[in-house]
Amino acid sequence: MSENLNILDVNLEKLEPIVEHEVNIEDQLNLVVNHANSDVINHKPDLFKTICQQAAKKDKPADWRCVLECCGKSINHIYDGGYCMTAETFALAQKFCPELKTINISLTRDNLQYVQSYLPQWKELEEVELRGPAFIESLLWSLSKLPNLQKLSLWDFDCETSGCIALNFLTQLKHLEISHLESGFPRKISTLLRNLISLNVYTNADKETCCELAEYCSKLENLYLYDHKENESWSIDYFNNLKCLEVHDQNASAFFLLNSLDQRYNYQLQKLIIPGKCIYQKEAMRIAKLKALKSLSCVLPDVRCLKYFIYLRLEELSLYNCCNLKNDHLLFTMHECKTLRSLKITLCTMITPHFIKDALEILFRNGVKPQNPFELMIRGSGMSTSDVDKMLSSHPHSSLLNLTLN
Fold first, then answer.
1. Among 27, 115, 140, 325, which is least packed by CB within 10 angstroms?
2. Do 80 and 102 touch, CB atoms closer than 8 A?
3. pLDDT digits (tens, 9 = 90+) for 36-70
4. Residue 19: in which H helix or E strand, if any?
């Protein structure tokens, strides 16, 4: 929030949607203390879902006690913004937040011991995020006592020297986010990998590492890769259960990546997210062979490539850098892709509000219902909200389209 504003300056009726997101404990404390007897606190004890502690604020355990005594039962997410949760604040959270589902913790030598002591006591925990560096073998072993733990995120750890081989203890885990994986390490955590449904690797997933992952991740459905070491020769090995592939890398060749996809993905892959990849004719022709594809996200500088996508049964389509996209191209896509229910386009300065009338008629013929309207998000078009509202308000099928401008 602004340095000149406090959460108390906000109309209380508008607080609920705001505090559903991260609000620091200083503002939470002000609200609780200043409105302890108000209807907001008395009738909305579940007002806060997340508690966020920032190191710069130097929050005191007394502040935590005040907030947690009032709202702790509804808090399901604690975010430690910077090495500042003490043993006392952990004890308070343990006492007043029995329904905690998610916790983000920054580890140091000073707090590692009591983090390891308190975390396994939260039996309802489903997600844990840890930031290093620290030796965490014993901590990982203790997390095996959490029966509901589904997701673990590890940041800034050297897997080889941080005791991360203990990940094999977490047989209940289904989702793993990890800052980097080196070749050879997937073999060491193969027990864990065999149970994973989704995996995010943010740096250094080289060709050998990807190959090892394909060998061990037999149940993997979702794979997210970032910042690949190699530029041109990045290929994705075949994962026999993979449904969603997301690649964030500005350097790797889209042509090489797509054309190296195993042919078995043609009837398996349902979601392809490559927001940094420019798609031209050759790449579009390869995408068109992915017959099971339901969701696609890519950069589309050449709008003529849209003709390759219309034969897919897409439900979601996100297109970036659509500077050549006109009303006719938009209507063509909506008309031909009859299964499409969500379309996002950016940098489309040639789009005008005049497409709306024809779009609504197309949606009506495609069987779109008011209870599940077509989601259209247009960013960077230059259209005004007033012009869009005018076109929508005068049409009987306006409830079929949920149009968002950014």
1. 27
2. no
3. 544 444 445 556 777 776 543 555 666 777 778 87
4. helix 15-19
